[in-house]
């Protein structure tokens, strides 16, 4: 299906200010969809606002835990497609604030899906789970047939999201499918605690990147444009009832260690002499977590278009421009203050 599929369709995106949600929203607008975004907190620095996409959508201020708001939005805007991406997505925050994480990620999911179940217009729903829902497995790579074994607060919240979504699909024949993506990176992510943004800020500033683990952890890394393509492709295919309740992995099928990622970023930078600082202080991490996306390739015809190096190169170019702009703004502000 091409872009004409989305023309005029009314789409709700929860989590539209996040890195994936903002680029998905941008792609939907470019495909001429009518997008309604649920915005928990307006953040002018978020990618949605920097892209200018916020001006092209209907923004609804609210929270996933406000059931009557969710019901009203679906009915008032006659929503046809729902992309449920909103979540407390930071692993270390989940460890510190498990109750808030479960409230948003778990309760927020069942409330939204109940509102979808009662809606007369919703025809397609894509729910974001995570590769972390798989937890520790005896065999790698993770396939969709593996059980969900999340144990930490964040991992468990995503496993619950995943199972709740499957329950609604199988029990009520809800037109719903689940995504389990690898680590998504790309332009616009300002969560500096994450590996790619943090390492890129460091190298742009000419500083050695800091690795909190021992550097040997292996993960899947997926460029955000490829993740967006996966979400759109899956939603477009949900006229097939055989897909209801199914989960799909989206990844590169090429795990890389944390150290490899950082060394690749350094190699693409203007400071190839830099050496990463390895703290080896991260605890409770699973050594190897990576996906097989064979099912998405076979069933959906999806495949990533960007190599790791190509995705990182584009992302690094964005951070160079962003940090340069911030430095220019800072200097300009200081000059203005000195004149005053």
Question: Strand order across the biggest sheet?
Answer: 3-2-1-4-5-6-11
Number of strands: 14
Calculate the terminal CA-CA distance, rounded to whole Å.
Answer: 58 Å
- As a percent range, the share of strand residues is 5-15%
The shape is globular
SSE arrangement:
Blueprint: E1 10-14, H1 19-30, E2 34-39, H2 47-50, E3 58-61, H3 67-76, E4 81-84, H4 91-96, H5 98-118, E5 124-128, H6 153-172, E6 176-181, E7 183-185, H7 195-204, E8 210-211, E9 218-219, E10 221-223, H8 224-236, E11 247-250, E12 256-257, H9 258-268, E13 277-278, E14 288-289, H10 294-300, H11 308-339
Parallel strand pairs: 1-2, 1-4, 2-3, 4-5, 5-6, 6-11, 7-10, 8-13, 9-14
Antiparallel strand pairs: 9-12
Task: Describe the model.
The strands form four sheets. The chain has a seven-stranded parallel β-sheet with strand order 3-2-1-4-5-6-11, sandwiched between helices. With 340 residues, it is of the alpha/beta class. α3 (67-76) runs parallel beside α5 (98-118), α5 runs parallel beside α6 (153-172) and α7 (195-204) packs across α11 (308-339). Helix content is 43%, strand content 15%. It has helices at residues 19-30, 47-50, 67-76, 91-96, 98-118, 153-172, 195-204, 224-236, 258-268, 294-300, 308-339, and strands spanning 10-14, 34-39, 58-61, 81-84, 124-128, 176-181, 183-185, 210-211, 218-219, 221-223, 247-250, 256-257, 277-278, 288-289.
């Amino acid at each position: 299906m091409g872009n004409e599929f989305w023309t005029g369709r009314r789409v709700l995106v929860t989590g539209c200010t996040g890195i994936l949600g903002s680029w998905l929203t941008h792609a939907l607008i470019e495909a001429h969809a009518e997008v309604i975004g649920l915005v928990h907190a307006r953040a002018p620095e978020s990618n949605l606002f920097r892209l200018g996409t916020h001006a092209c959508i209907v923004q609804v201020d609210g929270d996933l835990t406000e059931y009557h708001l969710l019901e009203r939005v679906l009915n008032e805007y006659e929503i046809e497609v729902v992309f449920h991406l909103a979540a407390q997505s930071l692993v270390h925050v989940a460890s510190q604030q498990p109750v808030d994480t479960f409230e948003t990620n778990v309760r927020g999911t069942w409330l939204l899906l109940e509102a979808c179940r009662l809606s007369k217009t919703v025809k397609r729903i894509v729910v974001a789970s995570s590769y972390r829902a798989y937890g520790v497995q005896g065999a790698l790579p993770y396939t969709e047939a593996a059980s969900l074994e999340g144990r930490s607060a964040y991992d468990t919240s995503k496993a619950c999201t995943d199972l709740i979504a499957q329950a609604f699909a199988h029990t009520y024949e809800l037109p719903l499918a689940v995504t389990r993506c690898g680590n998504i990176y790309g332009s616009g992510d300002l969560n500096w605690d994450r590996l790619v943004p943090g390492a890129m800020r460091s190298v742009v500033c000419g500083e050695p990147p800091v690795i909190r683990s021992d550097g040997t952890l292996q993960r899947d890394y997926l460029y955000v444009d490829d993740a967006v393509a996966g979400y759109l492709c899956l939603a477009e295919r949900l006229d097939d009832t055989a897909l209801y309740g199914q989960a799909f992995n989206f990844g590169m099928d090429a795990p890389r260690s944390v150290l490899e990622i950082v060394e690749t970023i350094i190699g693409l930078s203007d400071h190839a002499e830099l050496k990463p600082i390895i703290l080896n202080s991260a605890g409770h991490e699973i050594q190897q977590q990576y996906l097989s996306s064979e099912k998405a390739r076979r069933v959906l015809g999806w495949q990533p278009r960007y190599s790791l190096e190509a995705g990182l190169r584009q992302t690094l170019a964005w951070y160079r421009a962003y940090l340069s702009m911030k430095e220019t703004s800072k200097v300009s502000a200081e000059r203005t203050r000195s004149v005053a």
